């Protein structure tokens, strides 16, 4: 399995190709489904991404079938099922990089802000569970800003939520903590711009 540094470089390079519309022939070929192609998987990166339909994870990284272990949930939140999925991939496949991928104008963030401003109330306990997991990440931002409709506030809240999910993974699992301590796993955040296609990685190491 490749190192976290090399995995991150592959993701950066893939996003550069996506932005430049220079999709690699190799990735295009790998994306084609082939009957009977059931080799054991060996993903080089784990991606915890938002479920937003405008964020097609493999495409924006220009990767093919089997390259990424992708977990998608609204608001890229961290809950037991997401942690368990990441633990499984890290231990089973030896994958050394986890990226928490949020994105601009995230609907889950906007819904949470409206809930906090009492402009919207979620009657579904399942939707409310997502909002309640996002809410604590936004407190520090909202201590300084009050207009929840402001684009700058939404952008700051998106980044704060990504970082909260990174922290939740780094400190919410004994298995992941041990892998990090042994320098066998790196967990970073990243934000995808729906407007430009560019992915901003929060850390480079």
What order do the helices and strands follow?
A: HHEHEHEHHHHEE
Bin the strand percentage. Answer: 5-15%
Largest sheet: number of strands, sense, barrel closure: 5 strands, mixed
Please work out how many helical segments DSSP would assign: 8
Averaging pLDDT over every residue, what do you get? 89
Fraction of residues in helices?
40-55%
Number of strands: 5
Poorly predicted sequence stretches spanning 5 or more consecutive residues: none
Strand order of the largest sheet: 2-1-3-4-5
What is the molecular shape? globular
Notable characteristics:
13% strand, five-stranded mixed beta sheet, alpha/beta
Describe this structure in words.
With 205 residues, the chain is α/β, with parallel strands linked by helices. Helices cover 48% and strands 13% of the residues. It has 8 helices and 5 strands. It has a 5-stranded mixed beta sheet, sandwiched between helices. 37% of the residues are buried. The mean pLDDT is 89.
